């Protein structure tokens, strides 16, 4: 099965913009979905499809894709955005997740 | 309101079979294109997709765990059941079930259950 690669850790200053990336061959064929996970909590979907936000997700979260790379952008990061972020996509045999990115808001 | 809740043993012994149940509410497992997936997360580690099942009984399994997994559903009880055989300490994890939203271009999980921590130890 394919793999999705994420940077283990990223930091951003409060109010600034941060991009979290996800790379993998499956992303040439399928869109990534993105999840936010805070300590001790279940993941929450923040972006799916081309660039869709579920109800209740702030519009500072957006998604994009180019080639084998999908990106989650947070424009104007807030303290409450500090969390682990995971991407996933379909692949030829089912579903694959990235290894996660720990976002620190400074 | 759509909710999912996992249930099952908190402790299993090595070589035993784990049976987990996901009880859903707010939607029907018989609705067209409706699906539920199982995903796990070892302590401090990343998410790992295990299996999913759709309303038409289409099933898919993780390639690496396929020989040990069975997923099934009972539409009348609004439940999806996952069994995993030959449990090992490395299978210690929080096990989540989640509803699937999908098209030909993406597959997303929303919402998730609260998760249930399963420890494998003698």
pLDDT average of chain A, as an integer? 96
The parts of chain A where pLDDT drops under 50 for at least 5 residues are none
Instruction: Give the helix tally of chain B.
Output: 0
- The SS-based structural class of chain A is mainly beta
Q: Quick one: biggest sheet of chain B?
A: 7 strands, mixed
Q: What is the helical fraction of chain A, as a range of percent? A: under 10%
Report how far the terminal alpha carbons of chain A are from each other: 36 Å
**Overall pLDDT level of chain B:** 96
Per DSSP, what share of the residues of chain B sits in E-state strands of 2 or more residues? Answer: over 45%
Percentage of residues in DSSP E strands of chain A: over 45%
Structural class of chain B: mainly beta
Q: What would you report as the Rg of chain A, rounded to the nearest angstrom?
A: 13 Å
Share of residues in helices of chain B? under 10%
Question: Can you count the beta strands of chain A?
Answer: 10
Account of the 3D structure:
The complex is a heterodimer of chains A (106) and B (122). Chain A is mainly β. Helices cover 0% and strands 48% of the residues of chain A. Chain A has strands at residues 5-6, 9-12, 18-23, 33-37, 44-47, 61-66, 69-74, 83-91, 94-97, 101-105. The N and C termini of chain A lie far apart (36 Å). Chain B is an all-beta fold and 122 residues long. Chain B has strands at 3-7, 11-12, 18-25, 35-41, 48-54, 59-61, 69-74, 79-84, 93-102, 107-112, 116-120. Chain A binds chain B through residues 1, 30-33, 35, 42-45, 48-50, 54, 86, 88-90, 93-100, and chain B through 37, 39, 46-49, 51-52, 60-64, 96, 101-103, 105-115.
